[in-house]
Amino acid sequence: MSPPPAKRTRRFFIEDILREPYNELSPPQKTAQDYVKKLDNEVEQASKFQWVKTKSRFSITDVPADPEGLLAGIFQHCVDGGLDESRQRGVEPTHLGCTISSQLLSSDIWIPVRQITEDTINTILNRFNDVAQSKKQDGVTLWGEPFTVSVTTVNRNGLNVRRLKGGAPRKLAPVHHRISAKSLININNNNDGNNYCLFYAMMATLMHAIGGLTSLQFFYYLHSQKGMRGKLQQDTMEMMNVVNAPPGQQSYDAEIYAPRVIDWWNTQKFVDQFKFKAFIFGSSGQYKPLFKYGPEEYEVPIILYFDDGCNKMFFNDNCRQHHLTTNFCKRSKECKDCGKVYDVYDTTRGGREGHKCHEKWCENCQIFHDLKRGCYIKPLDGNEKKEASGWRLVTFDLETMQHEPADPDFPEQRKHQVNFITAKVACPECISSGEWKKSLCGKECQICGPNRVITFSQKPFRDTDVDKQIVTRHPLVDFVKWILYELPIKFETVAYSHFGGRFDMVLVFREIFMEGLNPTMIRKGNRLFEMTVTKRKNVNPQVSFRDSWNLVPGPLASMVPMFALDVQEKPFFPHLSNQPANYGRLIHPSKADYLADGMMPEKRKQFDRCYCKNDVDILMSGLVAFRSEFLELTKRKAGPDGKAERATFKNPHNGIDPVRDCITIASACMRHFRTNHLKPGHLALVPEKGYDSCGDNQSDLALAFMDWYAEEHGVRIQNAFSADGEKRVGNFRLDGWIEEQQKGLEIHGCVWHACPRCYPDEELEMPNGKTAGRIRERNKMRMDYIKSQFPDIEIFWECDIRSMLVRDKQMKEKFDEFTGEGGPINIRGCFMGGRTGALKLYHQAASNEEISYYDFTSLYPFINFVTTYPVGHPKLDVPCEEVDWRRPEDNPYPLAILKVFVIPPRQIDVPVLPVKVNDRLCFPLCMACCKKYPSGAVMDSYSCTHNDKQRGWISTCTSLELNAALEEGYRVTDLLRVLEYSKGDNKLFRPYISEFIAQKMHASGFDEEIRGNFQAEEQFIGECLEKFDIKIDRSKMIPNKGKRSLAKLGVNNLWGRFSLRNFGLSKTLITDDPGVLGNYLDNRKIEITALDMLTPEVILISYVEKKEWIKEHPCSNVVISLFTTSAARLHLLKSMQKVVRSPGCTLLYTDTDSLVYAHPKESNPLQTGPHLGQFTNELPKHEIAEFVSGGSKQYGLKLRKKDAPPDSNYEYILKVRGMTLNHDVMNNQGKGIVCSRDFRVLDFGHIEP
After folding, report:
1. Please, what is the Cα angle at 110 between 107 and 111, to 5 degrees?
2. Is residue 90 left, alpha or beta, with left meaning phi > 0 and alpha meaning psi from -120 to 50?
3. Whole-angstrom Cα distance, residue 1218 to residue 1198?
4. Is the bond preceding residue 93 a cis peptide, omega within 30 degrees?
5. DSSP code of 161?
6. Which of 410, 820, 874, 1029 could form a disulfide with 700, with the two C-beta atoms 3.0–4.6 Å apart?
C-alpha cells in the first residue's frame, strides 16, 4: 500500500500577497497586487485598557490557483499586522480576537478574544467555512464587494486589579451615571492644587452625617467661606497625618486609605459613639459598590461616588437610600436544601407561596414546574401586541468620508466621518392613507412630526426635494438629537437602516453614548441586531434601531424588483469620491471609485448604463410593501361562528406587524406559525441539554478515561454501564470502582463540579443555578463521607485529563478509538447539514454526453410538507444490548432517535449514513480509514483491511436514515440508547407551507410553458390539489413580485428557527475600569467577542456565555430541524442512486439540494417538474462542456449557450465556498485558469492526464 502524496504547501501568505511576485503562473508573471486590493486600514488604541484594534478592508479582484491559500494569506497578513501594530504602540499582545465582516455574509465570522496559540490562523480559516452556508446574494459576491478583517489584541498582563485613586482632575468626556447631578456634591481639587479629593470626600461626608451643621453652614464648610474658611482643609490634613497618608502624592488608592480612615474613626476617634462603613460606587451607574469596608453592623454609611474620568469623589446619601428602597439586596435568596439561587419576586408571583425545590419558572408555560414534566412551545395570541399609543417608522442612511487620517503618526490609516444623513418618517396611519409618499410641508402629523424627509449635511444642496435641510458641521450629532428629542415624545420610534447593523448603527451608538445614554443591544459578533434607547418620561420616547437586512436579506437595490417598487433604484455610489474637496463641484468619478471591477457581470452591465437615486426612498418603500404583504397574509378574519378562520385558536386579529414586532424574518415566520398554526400542548420544548444528561449519565470523556485506565493498569472498572451499575457508597455512587483493589475513581467535570482552577470565583453561578462555592462545599461533604468508608479514592479533573491527552500521544490515540457506547444521546450533536462534495474532480463531456446541473425546487419546504415529525416528549430507553438488524423490519422503533453501533457494507454505490469526523460531514465505509486520513487522500490502489468492528462506528441518527441504511446493506450490532416518540404529525407544517406556496404560485402566474394552454393549466391546478392539497384559484394567477418574494422568504425561514440556540448573541458591558476587562478576559464562563472604544477612558465589552450556560429559548426544538435535514439528505440520496444506477451516467458533484452529473444525451435519469421537491435545470439555456472541482463547495463550470454558434466564446463559473467570480476575473484575468487541468484547490490529489 503506497502512502498518499504529500500535501502541497499553501502559496498565498503575507509575502505572496503583498510583496513577492506570484511565480506559479506564466506568462505573464503576476504580483500580489493583481489579486488583492487593500482599500484602507484603521487602527484604534485604548492605552488605558492595553488593547489595539486594526481594521483592514480588502477587495479581492482575481482568484489564483489556490483560492484557499489566498484567504489564509489575507488572514495571516491581518493577524501579523495586528500583532506588529500592537507592539509598535507599546502593547505586547497576549490575547487576540478576529472578526470578518461583509455585507454579503449572513453573519459575521468571529473568533473570541483568546490567548494566542499556534492554531489561531487555522481556527479563523475553519470558521470561514461558514461562508458556504450564507445565503446567495444577487449581483455581487465577496470577491468583489469590500470586506473587513478586524483584529483585536490585548495585553492581559498590563491590566492590573482596579485601583480607586483620587487625583487631579482631567478634562475628559463625561462618564455616565443615572444619579442626578443635583444630588451630588463636587469635591474640587483645583483651588488647592493637590490631589486630596479622596480624603476631602470622606471628611465632608463625615461632617454632613454627624457634624450637626445646617445646610448653609455645611455649604460654607465645603467651600471654605465665612467662619468656615480653611476648616475642611485643616480637618483633612489632620486625618491624613493620623492615617499616615504622605502629602503631595499624585494619587491615593482608596482600597488602601479608606480602610485606614474607617478603622481610625471606629476604633479611636468615635469609639462607642458611631460605627462607620465605607461604600464606593463606580462611574457607570451600577447599584453594586465597587468597594466596601467596615463592620457588618454600622450606623453611618460613608458613601462615595468615584468618577475615573475626572478623578472626583462625590458624597450622596440618597444613593444608598435608593439602593435600599429598591430591595436590591433582598431579591435573591439561596435555598438551604437544594442550593438553588432564586428570585424572591418570581417565586411569589401569581399567589405562589414561594420557592419549591426542583421547580423553576418556565417562560414558555408561564408557571413553575418540575423540569422532568417537560414543556411545550406556547401558541401566541394575535392580539397581544396592541398599538396603544401609536408608533412611527424611520428609515435613514449615512454617508461617510475617509479622507482624514485617524492618527497623525499613521497617515495611511483613515477614519469614517459622517457628512450626510437622510431620514424619512412614516406612521401606520400615514401608510394606510397613502400620505407617507407626500411631503409634510405646511401640515404636521401628530405621530410623524413636521417633516417627512429631513437631511443633515455639511453643505447645502439643490435639485432634490426634501422637507427640511439641516446644515451643520456635525450631521451625526444633530441627527441623534433629532431622533431622540425632536420627534413627538408620546410615540415609539422604530428606525431602520439597511445593513446598518455593521455600519450605520455602530456610528449612531457612539454618538448616543456621547449623549449620555447607555442603549441596550442585541449583538452577534460585529453585527448589531437591535439597539434600544429606553423611554424617559418627558425627555425622549423609546427609540429602537434595527437592520432591515435581517427582515429582507439582500442588497438594498434588490428591493426594487423584489417588491416592484415605483422607485428608481440606486445600485451604485462612488464611495472613494466622498470627501470635502468635492463639495459643490461637478465631478466625474472613475470606475475605480465605484469598485466596478468587483461587480458581477450583470451588475457591471447595469453600472455601465446608469447610477443614482435615493437609498432612503427605496428602504421606506420596501419596508412598507413588505409590511403590507405580511399583514395581509397573517391576519385572521372572523368566520360565521365568530371564530378566526384558518387558525388554531378562536380569536380573529389584524395580522402580525413584522416591522414593529420582529427583528428578523425568521422571528416573523415563527410568530406567524405560533399565532396561526400551532396547537397548544403539541410541540415539545426540547431541553438544550437534551433528555439524556442527568442522573446516572457519565460523559464520554469520563467513560473514555476509565476505558484507558483499565487497559493501562490491567484492571476491571465497574461504572454506570456495567452489569451492576455504579458502586454505591451509602446514598452516593462512585464513577468507577476497582473491586480487586478496593479503589474508587472519580472523574470530575470542571463545569459540573466547579473546578477551583477553572472557576475560582466562589460566587460564580454555575449552569445548575448553584454557586461554585456551594458546589465545592457539597462535593467535599460527599467525598469526605465516601473516603470515610473507602479511603483509597483517586480524583481526576477534566482539565487534568485534557492536559494528559496533549502530553501522551498513545493515550490520545486510545481516546480517539473509543466508541462511546455508554454515553448519553446528544441530540444537537447528530444535527447535521446537507450532503456536499465532489464525486469526481474533473470531467469533460464526450460528444454523445451531456453534463446537467439540477436543483430541487424548495427542498426544505417540500420536506416540511411531507415529513412526519415527532411531537410531544420522548421516552428514554437504555437497552445496551447486542442485536442483529439487517432490514428495516428489524427496527422496532418507527419514530425515534437511536444510538447504535453500525457496520457499513464493504461496497456500495452511494453510502447512506453520515458521521462527523473532525467536524467534517463524511459518509464512510470504514471509520478506521476515515480517521487515518482525516483530510482524505487519493490513492490508485488502496484496499481496506480493517475488520467489521474497526469499520463500524457509534451512530446517533433518526429512524428515517437508519431504516434507509438497513435497506442498503448496513447492519446494527448494538442498540445502546433510544429516544422513542409515541406520537407523530405528518401535517405539522402543511397549513403553514400551503399558505405560502399558494401565494407564491398565485403571485408567479402560470409557467411560460403552459400559459394560455387551458388543458395544461387545469392539469397543473389538479396536480397541486392532488399532491399538496393546495387549492389554486385561476382568477388569482396574476404575477405579483411583492407577494412572491414574501412567500419565498416565508417558506424557507421557519424550520431552522427551531434549532436556534441562545449562543452567539452577545451581551454588552460599558466600563471605565481596566480591571473589569481583565476579569472578563479571565472569566471562564464567557468569551469576549469584541472590544470597542467609546472614549479614551471608556470601552464597550461584548461577550457571549459559553455553551454550558446556554438555556433553551421559547421555541427551541432541535428535533424538528434534525428530522428536516435527515429527510432532506434521504431525498437527495434517492436521486443520487437514480443517477449512479443508470447506464452511462456519472455523478460528479452534490450539494445540499443539487446535483451535477453526466449522462447520455438521449437518456436523462432525472426529470424536471413545476412542483415542490421536483427538479429544475439551473442552466437551461447552456450546455456544460467541462466540470472541475477541488472538493466541497469548490467547483468550476465551462459552458456555452445552446443557441450560440460553435465558434463562440465559452462562459465560465467558478465557485469557492459559496462565492462566485466577479466581472474583473471573468473578463480580464486569464480565463484559462478556470476550467483547465491546472486548476488546483485541494491540499492533496492529482488529476490524471
Report:
1. 160
2. left
3. 18
4. no
5. P
6. 820
DSSP 1014-1050: HHHHHHHHHHHHHHH-PPP-GGG----HHHHHHHHHH
Name the maximum alpha-carbon separation found in the chain: 111
Amino acid at 785: Y
Measured CA to CA, the distance from residue 78 to residue 60 in angstroms comes to: 14
Beta-bridge mates of residue 985: 869
Cell numbers 479622507 label which residue? 403
Separation of alpha carbons 559 and 620, rounded Å: 10
What are the residue ranges spanned by the domains of the chain?
A: 14-158, 177-330, 391-570+613-633, 700-821
What cell was used for 1174? 421536483
- In whole angstroms, what is the distance from residue 742 CA to residue 1191 CA? 54
Determine what percent of the chain falls in helix, strand and coil, rounding each to the nearest 5: 35, 25, 40
State how beta strands 1146-1151 and 1154-1160 pair. antiparallel
* Whether 348 contacts 232, CB under 8 Å: no
Residue 244, by phi and psi: left (phi above 0), alpha (psi -120 to 50) or beta?
A: left
Beta strands 492-497; 543-547: pairing state? parallel
Alpha carbon distance 1132, 855 (integer Å): 10
Angle at Cα 607 formed by Cα 601 and Cα 609, nearest 5°?
115
Supply angle C-alpha 507, 510, 511, rounded to 5: 90
- CA distances to 421, 529, 545 from 427, rounded to whole Å, are 20, 22, 16
pLDDT digits (tens, 9 = 90+) for 470-503: 999 999 999 999 999 999 999 999 999 998 988 8
Q: At what angle do helices 1041-1052 and 990-1004 cross, to 10 degrees?
A: 150
Q: What is the CATH number of domain 700-821?
A: 3.40.960
Residue by residue, DSSP assigns 1184-1204 as EEEEEEEETTEEEEEEEETTS
Q: Which fold has domain 391-570+613-633?
A: Nucleotidyltransferase; domain 5 (3.30.420)
DSSP state of 8: P
pTM: 0.71
Of 849, 769, 758, the closest CA to residue 1157 belongs to 849
Contact 88, 28 (CB under 8 A): no
The most confident of the ranges 178-182, 612-616, 1136-1140 is 1136-1140
Residue 528 is placed in which grid cell?
Answer: 448589531
Task: Give me the torsion for CA of 801, 804, 805, 806, rounded to 10°.
Answer: 130
Residue 321 CA: distances (Å) to CA of 177, 324, 327: 16, 5, 10
- At 710-748, the pLDDT tens digits run 989 999 999 877 767 788 888 888 999 999 999 999 999
Give the separation between CA 797 and CA 811, rounded to whole angstroms.
Answer: 16
Give the integer Cα–Cα distance in Å for 935 and 1247.
17
**Residue 344, burial from CB neighbour count under 10 angstroms (0-12, 13-18, 19+):** middle
Copy the grid coordinates of residue 954: 457509534
Q: What is the dihedral of CA 884, 886, 888, 892, to 10 degrees?
A: -10
Cα 586 from Cα 516, distance rounded (Å) = 40
